[in-house]
Amino acid sequence: MQLNRENLPKIGKKVAQEYISCSKPSTRVLLFGTGVLLRALPAFCIEEANRSGTFNGGIVMIKSTQSGSIEPFLKQDGLYTLRTAGIQNNNETTAQQIITCITDTKDANTSWKHILDLAYNKEINIIISNTTEKGIVDTDDDIFASPPKSFPGKLTSYLYTRFQHLGTTDDSRVIVLPTELIDDNALTLAKIVRKLAVRHNLPSTFTHWLDTHVYFCNTLVDRIVPGAITLEDTPYTDSLAIAAEPYFLWAIESKDNYVHDQLSFIGLSPNTFILPSIKPVREIKLRILNGTHTLMAAIALLAQHQFVKDTLAEPAYERFISQLIHQEIIPSLEAQGIQKKELALFSERIIDRFKNPFIEHQWSSIAQNYHAKIKSRVLPLLSYWYAFQEQAPTCISLGFASYLFFMRQHAYLLEEEGLAYAFANLDIEHIEILLSNKTIWGEDLTIWPSWAPAIKQHLQKLETTSIHQIMQRL
Fold first, then answer.
1. 117: domain CATH number?
2. How many domains, in total, are found in the chain?
3. From CA 456, how far away is CA 434, in angstroms rounded?
4. Residue ranges in 104-236 assigned as alpha helix (H)
5. What band does 66 get if pLDDT is binned at 50, 70 and 90?
6. E strand segments, 319-364
């Protein structure tokens, strides 16, 4: 039996799910993107809010890229299964539910006029996007094309259509929530939209409307979504089923009462919230989750671990990661003034997330763009640490030294010729020369007297001792 709305009443009687909505809620949300993150986080949060009676809104999902097809979504009327599986409080947990809040799916390449018609609907006042980091870019786009090529071009065209038909009334207001993983994602998107408006000589009343009636809200999302899965032991077939970890976070930046009132699907969970600033949350995620991943990647690769869960299966490595997070990264963040309550959002569940046996998160994937990640995710921790300590942080310095050691062996992975040469010819005895190179690091790392000696000591051990022995002795 195919999962779709016609079969949903019969399916609902056979699955262990407390609530399944067989009717379509009225459309209130436009979703630019059909990817698994959008379906496992924003759509999931809206589904939960619909079930609790706090939102009651449907989603029109838009495929805005050239690749792929919306046929599977049409065949299933937008319905799909979300399975969550992971570790919570040291216990394995799994859950499965049918998501019913997507009411229609459209292809921007073939149905752009129909999508613009949605701009007339005053009830559709929330736009959510995830077009990847490459989606929010300033291009020489034609917003009057059918459709414009870029996501900012499509959004500008849609917003201008809404302005033309609803004017500057309160009904024309709209909230834009980009979830692309770039800093200040909404502010960046808003700047591009305004540039496109100016380039196309759109009236100044429209740009004024953008400033007063369109609420561009920076957001931060976090949920590991491995992707598509094959369902077994279910009374229906589903080609859109996806898996995700139990943990999720969605932080939205806004001080406006209208945003708080309209986004009633935010706040039902302690992991979704609206804050005046999400910079502390972004900093926490960047250092605790991404920073730990980056510092552990070379260590794990030297240990010949393929997946993150493989590393956490060994007690010495789990102990090291816990020490890295709780004794070095968190104190560094606290030195910045970040509160323990905010830090707990990530730190309390981070080990469980890393240990998740259902997710095959490859260290080789984490190590992509490795040098850039070291510079952005790790090096800022040094200034935080040395603000209140004189001795080098043991775990951070070992992770950094392991990165140098690993890249000396794999310098060919580095795209910049000068960088590859510097790493391939790394001289441990004169490590200060490399660490002081501002071109490589963006700063002189020898300004902290204890840093270079610690790196040299770790590198000398790595030359003569296996990473397994080093980890066992820490």
1. 3.40.50.720
2. 2
3. 11
4. 112-117, 151-166, 185-199, 204-213
5. confident
6. none
